[in-house]
């Protein structure tokens, strides 16, 4: 039979500029024994969310959003040429929410134990996944400092509703994975939290910076101070990026959108700056629901945040 002209495999019939490398092309499937500077793993769990959420679809959406960017940084004058080892996504049982959280902890324990990467991208999922990831990270690397970008404290009690996406950092404190002084919360928003949880943060020595603090002090100065402080307490620093730290104008795909948040450029510059510290070794990105996003705006910021992290490491 005569071959059909111009036909390519499904998904590959796309325009290709010979001089442009898309960021998605950096993704390389991980196999045992492979090592590199960066790795990514998906934790597609969102059923513990307090509000309706399709954040389980976010790992794939963020990977796809990388296709919208090139690997070239004009600011640095160079390409990001290294691969991102892709571990894939963890399987989540359709009904076993508590079991899924434990499976994520077991899976991330195994992932970090490979020591395959110097830097880790962890794609949620809702914010409940951070408990599994950070707990496993601390067990692998020892004392860890955490910088949480978030509108919410996520220090809710587990009596009302169990281990939801509003509880991960309280659980980390209560199970001994973190001490209060090792946790920094940036971007906490007015009318988004309860007095009891604000007091819990104070009582436990958590460093809290509200959006008003960000406006009056600047994100750069806050990060400069806290990165230095954490580097004296710990040898590794983990960034936890809840996308609802952004104003609703920038992140329409967040289940808990609201006004009065951070703008995307401020956040992205902060990620770049934080990643320049050698102690910063991981970043999770959570709370994106692609089913309600507008033109993939929120997933694109998440993908850009990954590139900003890599750019910071190249400086």
Please tell me about this protein's structure.
The mean pLDDT is 97. This protein has nine helices and eleven strands. By secondary structure, the chain is α/β, with parallel strands linked by helices. It is globular, with a radius of gyration of 19 Å. Helix 4 links the parallel strand 7 (144-149) and strand 8.
Supply the key terms:
alpha/beta; two-stranded antiparallel ribbon; 19% strand; nine-stranded parallel sheet; 11 strands; Arginase, Chain A; 9 helices; 315 residues; 34% helix
SSE layout and pairing:
Layout: E1 27-29, E2 36-43, H1 58-65, E3 72-73, E4 78-79, E5 84-89, H2 97-113, E6 117-124, H3 129-141, E7 144-149, H4 168-174, E8 183-188, H5 195-203, E9 207-210, H6 211-217, H7 219-233, E10 236-242, H8 264-275, E11 280-286, H9 297-314
Parallel strand pairs: 1-5, 2-5, 2-6, 6-11, 7-8, 7-10, 8-9, 10-11
Antiparallel strand pairs: 3-4
Helix pairs in contact: 1-9, 2-3, 3-4, 6-7, 7-8, 8-9
The helix-and-strand class reads: alpha/beta
Low-confidence sequence ranges = none
Count of the separate structural domains? 1
Which fold name fills CATH's third level, the topology? Arginase, Chain A
- The tally of beta strands, per DSSP, is 11
What is the overall shape? globular
- Output the CATH class name: Alpha Beta
What is the gyration radius calculated from CA atoms? 19 Å
- Assign a percent range to the helix content: 25-40%
Describe what is shown at a glance.
By secondary structure, the protein is of the alpha/beta class. Helices cover 34% and strands 19% of the residues.
């Amino acid at each position: 039979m005569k071959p059909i002209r111009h036909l390519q495999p499904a998904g590959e019939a796309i325009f290709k500029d010979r001089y442009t490398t898309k960021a998605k092309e950096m993704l390389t499937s991980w196999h045992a024994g492979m090592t590199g500077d960066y790795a990514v793993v998906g934790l597609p769990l969102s059923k513990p969310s307090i509000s309706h959420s399709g954040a389980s679809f976010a790992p794939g959406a963020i990977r796809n959003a990388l296709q919208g960017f090139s690997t070239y940084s004009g600011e640095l004058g160079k390409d990001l040429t290294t691969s991102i080892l892709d571990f894939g996504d963890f399987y989540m049982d359709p009904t076993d929410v508590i079991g899924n959280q434990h499976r994520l902890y077991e899976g991330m324990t195994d992932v970090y134990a490979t020591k395959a990467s110097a830097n880790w991208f962890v794609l949620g999922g809702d914010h409940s996944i951070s408990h599994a990831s950070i707990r496993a990270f601390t067990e692998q690397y020892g004392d860890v400092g955490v910088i949480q970008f978030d509108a919410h404290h996520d220090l809710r009690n587990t009596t009302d509703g169990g281990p939801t996406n509003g509880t991960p950092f309280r659980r980390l404190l209560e199970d001994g994975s973190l001490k209060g002084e090792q946790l920094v919360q940036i971007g906490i928003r007015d009318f988004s939290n309860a007095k009891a949880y604000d007091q819990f943060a104070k009582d436990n020595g958590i460093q809290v910076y509200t959006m008003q603090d960000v406006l009056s002090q600047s994100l750069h100065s806050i990060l400069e101070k806290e990165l230095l402080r954490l580097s004296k307490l710990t040898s590794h620093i983990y960034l936890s990026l809840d996308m609802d730290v952004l104003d609703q104008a920038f992140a329409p795909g967040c289940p808990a959108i609201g006004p009065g948040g951070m703008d995307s450029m401020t956040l992205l510059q902060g990620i770049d700056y934080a990643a320049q510290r050698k102690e910063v070794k991981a970043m999770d990105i959570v709370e994106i629901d692609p089913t309600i996003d507008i033109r993939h705006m929120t997933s694109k910021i998440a993908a850009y945040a990954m590139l900003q992290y890599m750019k910071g490491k190249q400086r």
